[in-house]
Amino acid sequence: MASIFQRMFKVGQSQAHSAMDKFEDPIKMTEQGIRDLKNDLQGSMRSLAEVKGVVIRLKKEADDNKRLAADYERKAMMLLKKMQNGELDSAQSERLATEALNRKEECSQKAVSVMQNWEQQDKMASQLQASVSKLRSTVSSYENELITLRARAKTAAATRKINEQVARVDSTGTIAMLEKMKAKVEEDESLAQSYGELASAETSVDDEINSALAGSQLSLASDKLAVLKAKMGM
């Protein structure tokens, strides 16, 4: 039982260390931060689109009410002209003209109210647009920093690996080995030179002996030739 609990503890400890390593890894932290920012950006863009949709609808509604108010006023004027021309009864004409003016007033008031709402929503849309632009710029900046961070991490890892390899090299032992090899080479060179000098010396002695002997033989030949000439009376 104790060994099982020990293994479970080691597994949990390993997972905790792994989680801590991931938490402390700046690249993973930056990647997660960028993902969170992108999610926020998408949410902000949806909100911006909704607000802009409301702004567009309110602007259209305000314009429609302004147009209706102007149309009711035009109709009221036409009714009064018909009354003036005797085409309509004065009572009926004034009643209808008054209704048209009342509708005009309602449309005008609604247009003013909608325009006020439109101004508020438009202001909110502008602020939200600025926030979205800033958030988009932040995401882009962080993505560029992540690219740089990844490159720096690769360079640092490669440099660290090389430095670790260099640090593991026994410089003292290597120098001692090189000095030993150098001494051996110098010793072999000295021996080669010594043997060369000995060989040269032996060759010179032999040459001297042969030269001396060659001179004696020439002298003997000359003496024999002189005796032969004397005998012949030459």
Give the total of domains.
Answer: 2
Q: Which word captures the global form? A: rod-shaped
The average pLDDT is: 78
Terminal residue distance = 134 Å
**Helix-strand category:** mainly alpha
Would you report the number of β strands?
0
- CATH class category of the largest domain: Mainly Alpha
| Architecture per CATH nomenclature, i.e. the level-2 architecture of the largest domain | Orthogonal Bundle
Helix content: over 70%
CATH level 3 topology of the largest domain: Helix Hairpins
H/E series: HHHH
Please report the number of helical segments.
4
Beta fraction of the residues? under 5%
> How many strands, what sense, and barrel or not for the largest sheet?
none
Task: Tell me what the structure shows.
With 234 residues, this protein is mainly α. It folds into two domains: 2-169, Helix Hairpins (Orthogonal Bundle), CATH 1.10.287; 177-234. Helices cover 95% and strands 0% of the residues. It has four helices and no strands. It has helices at residues 2-24, 26-84, 90-168, 171-231. The longest helix is centred in the middle third of the chain and has 79 residues, at 90-168. The mean pLDDT is 78.
Descriptors for this entry?
mainly alpha; 4 helices; 234 residues; 2 domains; Helix Hairpins
Layout of strands and helices, then pairs:
Layout: H1 2-24, H2 26-84, H3 90-168, H4 171-231
Helix pairs in contact: 2-3
